[in-house]
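thread: overnight batch results

M.L. [08:02]
morning all. the overnight job finished for the chain we discussed friday. pasting input first so we're all looking at the same thing
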Amino acid sequence: MASINATRANPALTGGFASGFFTATASRLAAWNDARITRKSLSQLSARELDDIGLCYGDINDVAAGGFRR
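M.L. [08:03]
and the structure it wrote out:
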């Protein structure tokens, strides 16, 4: 009968510090890029278009950072 020892973590699955570091860095990079694209897209809208969606130019950075609540 075969048995599996499940008491130790598999190093290939946990990855350790290096994997966590690169995963966190990639996540921060993706979040920064999403904010950059959002900021650029909203900055290209006219004041009238921003008003139509309930924003003004001063709200763009808050919206891009994800902290905008109305």
